[in-house]
Structures are given as structure tokens and as C-alpha cells.
Amino acid sequence: MKKSLYLVAMSLLLSATMLSCGEKNPFPGYTPTGTGLYYKQIVAGNGDKLLTGEVIKVRLAYYLGDSLLFTTNSIPEAAYDMVRESVFQGDLYEGFRMMHVGDSMSFMINADSTFRKQFHAPTLPDFIKPGVFLRWEVTVDESLSEEEFQQRKMEEMAVKQQEAEALQQQANEVFAEYLKANGIKTQPQESGLVYVCTKKGKGPKPGYKQTVKVHYTGKLLDGRVFDSSIERGEPIAFQLGVGQVIPGWDEGIALMSKGEKGILYIPSNLAYGARQAGELITPYSNLIFEVELVDFE
Known about the structure:
alpha+beta, elongated
């Protein structure tokens, strides 16, 4: 019995001696895992432990020293990631698997391995040197099964689709009201485009993939000019019908002969739709273009 206690005491003494002689922790306040990962608990959550295969709603940022390289705060929507098997020892996924829902933790992770093996970077950035570590600040807000996540995304897409349809309908109503208020009685094309000829041209009309040269002035319905080739003193040239310009232009310019002038009243779905285009053209903007088909070949 005495011999057994003596061996235990000697074993503990030997372990303490080995720790005291070991390398100093390069990241004070962090605990090493033995795989190359260092961690520090910031906030302890009270949710379930994360499991491989779960999708997590996460807020994170990573730094090189004090320099912020990326943060999910810079993207407009919530960020999700999956708890995966590790791609290298001591990686972020090992850190995820240590966490619970509601946890906030800080990790020190090898930068070279992160860029090469996790980010699959073909070459390392100049600022990544051997032995450098990235500091990751991670907060897990929620965990979902993959099926729950897919269901949520489908529901979110359905809501966005409904919102887009409502905004498009509103833009269509504004377009129709403008035409009526300004006495524009020209029959719309099947697409909804309205073309009013102000000066007849001569000869044939341009065809698919022909290069056309067009002078134009673009306006919003309230009369504000957002672009003009006339002010620049040079017409725009493009191939017709191949998507180099908005659909309303591809369709409208194809209705004109050389030398013809006219006005294109373009509903938003034939312009930039839900996209922002420059400072003045907001999503779902209906547009007006005064155009002249200078030449085509």
C-alpha cells in the first residue's frame, strides 16, 4: 500500500516537472487542446452541445493580430455554417464541436493551414507567414438539423418572392398611371414596353446580333436625367439581342430604322428589376429613354 502511494506521488511530481519544463503557452489566457487549437470561453451558453452535421446560425470574425480580416457583420443576412469533421487538426470545426448553443468563444488557429486546407487558397496571402495564428471570435446563436435549415430557407424564399411580387405590382401600377396621366395612348408591346416614334427612319430594322449605334438620354418618371450619350458626345454601340443592355432596349431598338428617333417607356421588369443601378435608379424603377438609332451594321 505504501509503495502504491509512493508511486502515485512520484508520478504526480514527474508530471508537474514535465509541465514546468515544457514550452510556454504562446497565448496567455487560452487553453491548448493538444491538437494545435487554443481556446478561451467568453460567454457560457445554456443550449445543447453542437453535433457534427448540424447547421448553426453563427456570428464570427477573424483577426490577424489586431487587424480584422473578416466579420459576418459585413454581410446583410444571417450567417450559417455546418459543424463538420475537421479538415486539419486544430481547425475551426474542432472549435465548433467544443461549443454549445449560446456560447461565445475565442480560438487561436493556425493561419497557414486555414488558408490552404479550409479556404483552399491556391497561394497564401503575403501577410501569412509560417507559425502565424488567426484569432477567431465565435458566437453560436442557434443550431438546426439540415432538414430544419432547408425548410427555413424555403420559407424565407417564399416570403421574399411574395415581397418581390408585391413591389413589382406596385411598380406596374405606377407605370400605368404615368402613361395615363401623360396622355400616352400608344398600344404597349406584348411585353409591356411602350415605343413612341417621334421621327421616322428609313430602310430595314436591325436584326439579332447586329451592332447598333444609339444616342440616348435616360430619365426617371419624375424627369430626372440619370445618363446621356448626347452629353458625352458619342453614341453607345452594342450587339442587339444578346443581353448587353437591358431587355427594354434590346426589344425597343429592334423596332427602329436607321435615323429614327423615339421614346422608350420601359417598365421596371424590362429595365433593372429589383437591382440598384447607380445612384438614381433604385429597385423597381420604371425608365424613359429618348433614343436615336444612328446606325447599324
